[in-house]
Design brief:
Largest sheet: 5 strands, mixed
Shape: elongated
Structural class: alpha+beta
Length: 282
């Protein structure tokens, strides 16, 4: 038998290592959230904290990222995990996204590296029941498994929109990212779903300046607020987020600005809108 040239052999080994350890498989069939809208009935949803980790999909045998890349985990991490599909979040704690993201991408990790990581369950893609039924099933799985690495994200009912935003403020003030809302009677549906909603403290959007209002008090003679119009035709004022220089020389009428806001009001107006920047002219 002829010998395989060393260069070709090395390439074969490298290719095998690549396909075995860091291969991108097909993307997992997951459900994706839509943004919060003010017309939902909050009490019909279960509410949980939106964790700032890395989306993980346990297919019963291995962990995949949202893009389909296999996560190299020590055997001790998944010991006792059920042989069912679980949608969840690989999480190290609040404000630890960069650390967990880097760990997920590594191929040479140890059990010690993963010691503090939790796989936080938030759904069971193959379960035929409603979200309430799936949540109960996840709680049972969590009770039957060592909680060192497998836990379920706590879900609560929130009665009113006011209570929802109070909850959001509490989570954000504690260093959290936002909230997730799951429609209680919804079944798991792959793709973008109106029955799973994310509510984060700030969204970015653009609007056209159509007017100015005069400032009062310390801002007398300067800009008080911009009157802006969104692409959907919503007109509202933005009175915060400006530097003193911007109040003296505000964006001109007709210019496009980017603003941040916290959800929408019942009328569809951006809630707590704040000026972010002016888009440079072309």
């Amino acid at each position: 038998m002829s010998k395989i040239p060393s260069v070709i052999f090395s390439l074969m080994i490298a290719l095998y290592s690549l396909t075995t350890h860091s291969a991108v498989l097909s993307k997992p069939p997951i459900q994706l959230a839509t943004q919060y809208q003010p017309d939902i009935t909050v009490a019909e949803y279960l509410v949980s904290e939106k964790l700032d980790g890395v989306r993980g999909y346990w297919d019963g045998r291995q962990m995949l990222t949202r893009s389909g890349r296999k996560v190299v985990l020590p055997a001790s991490f998944t010991l006792g995990f059920p042989e069912v599909a679980i949608d969840g979040e690989l999480w190290l704690g609040r404000n630890q996204f960069e650390h967990i993201s880097a760990l997920v991408r590594r191929l040479d990790t140890s059990a010690e590296d993963w010691q503090q990581v939790k796989f936080m369950m938030f759904d069971l893609p193959d379960h035929p029941g409603t979200f309430v039924e799936r949540y109960l099933a996840m709680q049972k799985w969590a009770e039957q498994t060592d909680p060192t690495h497998l836990q379920v994200i706590k879900q609560d009912t929130v009665a009113t929109t006011e209570a929802l935003f109070d909850r959001l403020d509490s989570v954000v003030n504690a260093g959290g990212e936002g909230l997730m809302l799951h429609f209680k009677q919804a079944h798991y549906a792959v793709g973008r779903s109106e029955y799973i909603v994310k509510l984060k403290p700030k969204y970015d959007a653009e609007a056209v300046v159509i007017g100015h209002t005069q400032g009062k008090g310390k801002y007398r003679g300067q800009l008080g607020a911009l009157i802006v119009k969104t692409p959907a035709g919503i007109v509202f004022n933005i009175g915060s987020g400006f530097s003193d220089k911007q109040r003296e020389n505000p964006p001109l009428i007709g210019s496009v600005i980017t603003y941040q806001y916290l959800g929408l009001t019942q009328k569809g107006t951006p809630r707590f809108a704040s000026f972010l920047r002016e888009r440079p002219s072309q």
